[in-house]
Amino acid sequence: MNTAAASHAPLREMWLISAGHMLTHWYPATFYLLLPLIGRELGLSYTEIGFVMTAMYGVGALTSMPGGMLVDMVGKKGKLMALSLFWVGMPYALISVTHSYWMVIACVCLVGIGNNLWHPAAIATLATRYPARKGFVLSLHGMGGNVGEALAPLAIGALLATWSWRTVVVVNILPGLVMAALILIYVGAFSGERNRSETSAPRRVGDYLHNFSQLFRNRALMLISCATGLRTLTQSGLLTFLPVYLAYEMKYSPFAVGICMAVLQLGGFIAAPVGGHLSDKLGRKRIIMSGMTVAGITIVGMALAAKTPWFVVFVALVGFFLYAMRPALQAWAMDATPMNMRGSTVGLQFTFSAVGSALAPAICGMIADSYGIYMAFYFLAGTIVFANVMMLLMPAETSAHAHSTAAG
């Protein structure tokens, strides 16, 4: 495709895709707020609560790579995004009628499958449409996720003041259905399905498999993916156990818990465009390493500031620095791989991310049961510091356009 033209492409496609991304994050954010209520009703331990989220992200880890392969081989990214939204929302209707812990596990596994189909299609589309502004555009896409994660706790916390959690999960499927329909309606306008260079599907399966195998020999991509997994491990642990800590240890109401979680996402909302834009201008590595260093420090500060007014300030700072890194990591992965393998690249990166998300709740739950919930927060600070050390092994950054122009 014409790189110069794509660099100045209008942002209307990005806004619709980002709105869809908002919904893919709205649903997990809703569930984080509901989880303490479900756990209390079903009499779950910290470890069992953690395993619920581990199951969701574990299934995501198994399906992210097949999702990326599907995007590169089939194309039709807009239809795949609409399918993802439908798939994420509908299992919540089943959760509303269950009284079984294992049925809850089964439903969140379905959510995990649908959620991990979104990113390969959406990120590959945006990286192709806006090659010179990857970091910035992917940060706006990420902001859509932050908006969903910020608004969901507030909205669901308010609804829980009036309705039971079972009623709330049924009402909650409606936004996803509406957005899936909008993406289907406008699929031909923005998905790139009319332009083979944007779908970049290989002509032969053999060609694709050869290109796919090369991803695992790409040192930069593998290190970026590992760092992504550790960043997400930290984020997932916080999102799972921060509301549990606020509800169980600090005795906050659901609405107050929702406010604190919204503060975390507000920090991320502000950070995403800043981090994405600066990574385009100053380099990915500098932004990522700075963000990881300060994130680890602020998590420790959050734990030390418990039950003081400074606690909420540190929560906002954690959100800022954790989310500032996300668009830079995604853009760096796109820089490091050819255009016709971007769906698979996103699938690989999100496989590592899903592994991190799956491990964090279970590990943090066991640490909290054995040593107290504060030790779980210290563990999360350690993981983000370790990810920063890994970045020192990264080779020199590749040009943002090198692989875009070389792809076939």
Verbal overview:
The protein has one domain: Growth Hormone, Chain: A (Up-down Bundle), CATH 1.20.1250.20. Helix 2 packs across helix 13, helix 14 (254-282) packs antiparallel against helix 15 (284-304) and helix 15 (284-304) runs antiparallel to helix 16 (310-335). By secondary structure, the protein is mainly α. The chain is 83% helix and 0% strand. Mean pLDDT is 78; it is low at 1-7, 188-202 and 399-408. The longest helix is centred in the N-terminal third of the chain and has 31 residues, at 12-42. It contains 19 helices and no strands.
Sum up the structure in keywords.
408 residues, mainly alpha, Growth Hormone, Chain: A
Largest sheet: none
The CATH topology annotation reads as Growth Hormone, Chain: A
**Second CATH tier, the architecture:** Up-down Bundle
- Specify Rg, calculated over alpha carbons: 20 Å
Overall average residue pLDDT:
78
Helix content class: over 70%
Determine the strand fraction and express it as a percent band.
under 5%
Note poorly predicted spans.
1-7, 188-202, 399-408
CATH superfamily: MFS general substrate transporter like domains
Strand tally, please?
A: 0
Shape: globular
| SSE succession | HHHHHHHHHHHHHHHHHHH
Give a summary of the structure in a few sentences:
The protein has 408 residues and is mainly alpha-helical. The protein has 19 helices and no strands.
Describe the SSE topology:
Elements: H1 3-7, H2 12-42, H3 46-74, H4 77-89, H5 91-95, H6 101-129, H7 134-160, H8 165-171, H9 174-185, H10 187-190, H11 196-199, H12 205-215, H13 219-248, H14 254-282, H15 284-304, H16 310-335, H17 342-371, H18 373-391, H19 402-406
